Amino acid sequence: MTETSWTTDYQEIVAFGEVLYRAGLLVNPDEEYGDDIFYYLQKPGKWDREHQVWVARGRPGTESDGWELFRRAVDHVYVKDEG
Q1: Domain edges within the chain
Q2: pTM
Q3: Rounded to 10 degrees, what is the CA torsion of 1, 28, 35, 52?
């Protein structure tokens, strides 16, 4: 799957959205930055870098051996706007 084509695949968007949520990069709508989830659904391509890291790490899930490697790699990619 190419970097741009994943954003046209609904199943990929949902699968990666769950990964971002479980990694703490998207929050519950009841939390402080609750619009993250809706922004992701509107513009999933904004997460291309994180998606590339996930794919490069073998698409790990939370129970996979590669999950912590993915989390550490994506932690330095993702910068949350606190302002």
Answers
A1: 5-77
A2: 0.69
A3: -20
